[in-house]
Amino acid sequence: MTATPDSPRSHYPVAIVGAGALGLAFAARLAATGPVAMIARNAARAAELARGVQIGGQLRRLDVFAPNALPTADWAVLLVKTGDTDAAARLASALRPHGLLSLQNGLIEAELREACPALAAGQGVTTEGAYRDATGIHPSGAGETLLPPGFEDLAALFVRAGFVARVDPDIARARLAKLLVNLAINPLAALFRVPNGALLEPPHRVLLDTLVREALPVLRANGLDLDEGAALSRVHGVARATAANRASMLQDVLANRRTEIDAITGALLGMAETGGFEVPTHRAVHTLVRAVEHAATGTPSDRG
Ligand SMILES: NC(=O)c1ccc[n+]([C@@H]2O[C@H](COP(=O)([O-])OP(=O)(O)OC[C@H]3O[C@@H](n4cnc5c(N)ncnc54)[C@H](OP(=O)(O)O)[C@@H]3O)[C@@H](O)[C@H]2O)c1
């Protein structure tokens, strides 16, 4: 086991799978009010993290575990990139939790349930943010975290740690509202390599609005009760509020990493196909982002 010498346990109220930007930001805050287990991808990463990691400008030593020596946990929180969902969800199952909560972007609940059918698994939504660079983890201000019904006890743990968090009885709608923003802003920011605010200006604005207008009938058919004006103003509002930010998909492209395009635009394409909707601009954007990924990482551009 790789853990801090003074506080390893065999059982935790909560464990976080995915020791990246958001996972470590959540773990650091949760650790202030109770034990939290951080599950790393492999032993080398666990050993590195156990030596300490800068989170919000402070050196933090968390209880870190490698996959070959896991504790058990009441609740598991999944915070890996969506391309790693399957492997990480199986790892989370080994913690034998009451429930597995994903706070990933995109729509991945079906994949989660397929990966661990014996678990109560659900996908919530968070507007908490964090990024990582060579100096450590930088939490970027407080947001709101919504959990699916059944995760009340975990929501209470979050609240105790100072998060704004609650169970949302209509979590499917919350996921679609976040998907709308992500599928408009993320791919365009990645393709044109611009900060979010630039998408509100020519020449990108027309594409941004086209993506919103094309997606809306599909999302509405799946339960998102927004009219076009409200949908556009929601996306514009996020682009304006995060004008200087680099969207996560842009960060992935710049770092030559696989993006979350399949869980975001790919999820829309799947719903459009099922419902018989035409979404040609999203289809083109999906192909283009995959082509960029292929050039950078060698990931097959025709996967799945
Ligand atoms: N960052 C944000 O502000 C933010 C906000 C809202 C939602 N989200 C969503 O949250 C998710 C995580 O984002 P992030 O920015 O935190 O990503 P990230 O910094 O890339 O972190 C992901 C972490 O998952 C680890 N991982 C990969 N496969 C694993 C496995 N099989 N088992 C255990 N750990 C594994 C990675 O390990 P290595 O370090 O070894 O590669 C990495 O540390 C994404 O879906 C993202 O869209 C992020």
From TrEMBL:
Its EC number is 1.1.1.169. The keyword Transferase does not apply. Residues 14-145 form the Ketopantoate reductase N-terminal domain. GO terms for biological process: pantothenate biosynthetic process. The chain crosses the membrane at residues 12-32. GO terms for cellular component: cytoplasm. One of its GO terms (molecular function) is 2-dehydropantoate 2-reductase activity. It catalyses: (R)-pantoate + NADP(+) = 2-dehydropantoate + NADPH + H(+). Keywords: Membrane, NADP, Oxidoreductase, Pantothenate biosynthesis, Transmembrane, Transmembrane helix. Pathway: Cofactor biosynthesis; (R)-pantothenate biosynthesis; (R)-pantoate from 3-methyl-2-oxobutanoate: step 2/2. Residues 170-293 form the Ketopantoate reductase C-terminal domain. Catalyzes the NADPH-dependent reduction of ketopantoate into pantoic acid. PANTHER family: 2-DEHYDROPANTOATE 2-REDUCTASE, 2-DEHYDROPANTOATE 2-REDUCTASE-RELATED. Belongs to the ketopantoate reductase family. This is 2-dehydropantoate 2-reductase.
